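Annotated sample (chain length 407).
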Amino acid sequence: MKLNTELSDVRTLDHGGPKPSTRSQMKRTRASNQRIPKWAYLLFIILAAFVTYRILQHRASEVKTAQLPARPASVAKVITKDVPIYLDEIGTCAAYETVLVQAQVSGVIITRNFQDGSDVKKGDLLFTIDPRPYQAALDQAKAQNALDQVTLKRQEDLRARKVIAQQDYDTAVANAQKSQAAAEAAQVNFDYCFIKSPINGRIGLRNFDVGNLVGPSGSALVTIQGLDPIYTDFTVAENDLPLVRKYLNGPNVKVQTYLPDGSITPRMGDLYFIDNAVQPGSGTVKARGVTPNPDRALWPSQFVLVRFILDTLKDATLVPSQAVQVSQSGPFVFVVKPDNTVDLRPVKPGQRQEGDLTVIESGLKSGETVVVTGQLALSPGAKIAPQPYSSQNQGNPQSSAASKGAL
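Output written by the structure step:
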């Protein structure tokens, strides 16, 4: 019995304790668990949470973008038409003709036949100088001439009958010619008593009144300026001379003149003169145009705006100027797609034109639709609710006079 009890105890001890091979495996498991630190598990959990957050955020933004309502925006079609190539300058007007009316004979003014500042025509009577002395001299010269003509006739009859010396006949001829010249001179002096306007124009402020003694050595009686047409004087910068020379002899060179306040319709004239040298101090070249002025709206020495048109650009691509935006990458426009979403398109703008339009040298085609207003709320791919755009500056060159776009 004692022996059996001991054997069972031994079996019990063998089953309850771990075997040598099992202990070695447990040691290896603990060692492998100790190779991966706990912070690695923590980092893995953080990264997994961040990736999950980014995925959910991206999906939420996609849903939000898809649910954004269409934004209102004004749109316009890209058009093509012929536009001018030009330079905008500042100039002044000058009288087409300026005449200082001067007395040609001495005498007292007895009449004045005009109102200061009025328009006069060529041949209108302005002043009358007392003609009586010159009338008397004219009558005397005519009488002497008549006598000399009678004497010459008598000498011709005697010469025909050969009863007069040749010298007497020659003297009679000379006397007749001299008296004829004296009568003509007396007539001229008499005519000078009636001072008339030599041109069509506007008369200035008179310098003499009735009763004043005037003469050839005195100052001008009054000034008359021709205002229709009128000169437009301006300058061209030295840097623009190569462009001007390129088109100078072309058929489309014109000078357009208008006032800064837009009170008159721009008037188209011809280039009359361009200087042959650059002014040393200013680096500019003088130029002059001839401008129609039938209503006398332009006055001498008045400041005007000048558009020096050099040529015509055929079939230019045009968009409203507000459509062109500028970013760090350069000028761009928003182009509207058929599904009313927008695409950002880089462009190369040129000169501004009448009607608040801008030439697009590259980047757009005729017939495309661009966004004109409402760009601040847009991004590529955004959807819009398009509305027609209407310009407020149709046909007004002042809207682009301040900008000399690159050609």
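Annotation: Helices lie at 2-16, 20-35, 38-67, 132-160, 166-192, 241-247.
Annotation: The radius of gyration is 50 Å.
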